[in-house]
Amino acid sequence: MNRYYSTFEELTEAASQYLEDLGRSKQTISIYKWIWQRIKAFMDARGLKRVDSETVAAYLIDTYGNKQVSALTHHQKHCYRCALSLAQFAETNKMIERINRREKVILTGEFGRLIDQYVEHKRSMRLCAKTLRGYLWYLYRFQTYLYENGVDSPESLSPLVIVNYVSILLPDAAGAKHLALSIIRNFLNYLYRVGRTGKDLSLVVPRHNYKKQAKLPSVYTREEVSAILNSIDRSTIAGKRDYAIVMLAVRLGLRASDISGLEFGHLLWSQNTIAFQQSKTREPVRLPLTADVGEALIDYIKYARPTSGETFVFLEKNYPHRPIHSKMVSKTADRVILGSGINIGDRKHGAHALRHTMASMLLESQVSLPVISSLLGHSNIQTSMCYLRIDIEALRQCALEVAEVPETFYTQKGGAFYA
User: What CATH number should be reported for the domain whose range is 222-397?
Assistant: First the structure.
């Protein structure tokens, strides 16, 4: 195999242990191992025995073609890194400990204090922690540029400094530049509103003509959903919980945050209904409690749920049996889908993919878009419009006939153009 390990299994086992020693979670390691098994299948099909950079490069070309890494999806890039990590480990017995490590954010001076105040202001508007981290990062980079160019207070800011910064900002990342400009524009407007600048310098920041093309949602067929559900061992405590979680996602389209936040008070058994306030939108939603979902919940609650006074339905299996986090719901869906044996391809495989699948099945059943929007808990029907692009049968009905091209078109000028 190579100078360190004699078999592929020994190599991947050692690589898995290396990742575990680095502190990677079991779920992360399982994704690495899934990619590595695809490499093994590629090698077996071609009679290759040695894992090295050339073998992995051939696998990547076979899987993704000659695409530039920048043209790959987020999921594909992650798979790409997992494959390269195995090649690196096979050749050096080591892996890169961190990928894309960000520079540590250190806010200093007058601008640092104002950035802190601005972020706290945004926090009071109930922006989530992830969004606030993005604000800190982009404003930290802006602060760094200002200090490097001798601008140490808002009073020293000038339109020229701002325009110069914008001209060099993230030239190869249109999406990130669009976000950074928006954050900087809002920050400068905040400085004007609190009286730290004499003019509203946010007007100097140009509008970035960036339109994000939404990706097609990842969905699974009815047969694949059946395979996913049948792969869960419902004879175990963990299996009963996993099955109930997956059923809520794929039958009712619940988000991971709403599954983890599900309480007994939300289950209106006498009305065969689930009613709750959505975690993401804070909008109330009322859904039918179908028989198969109800049976899955009862099976978990009666025979697998730890004894606890908690009002939340889903609890951790280990003491002190705290309510599960939304990340655990996503990891559960991820693990179940990957372990089902179906061909994932380039599709995502988390709880949100199951939610998309539910919407896709409703479209196949010719359920109207307003009804789907209501079931998904979307506050605006436009949010649900993206699912129209995956309704292949309906799109076929919209196809136009191609007009027949007359023979004279091909024979014009003696057929010189189409010889």
Answer: 1.10.443.10
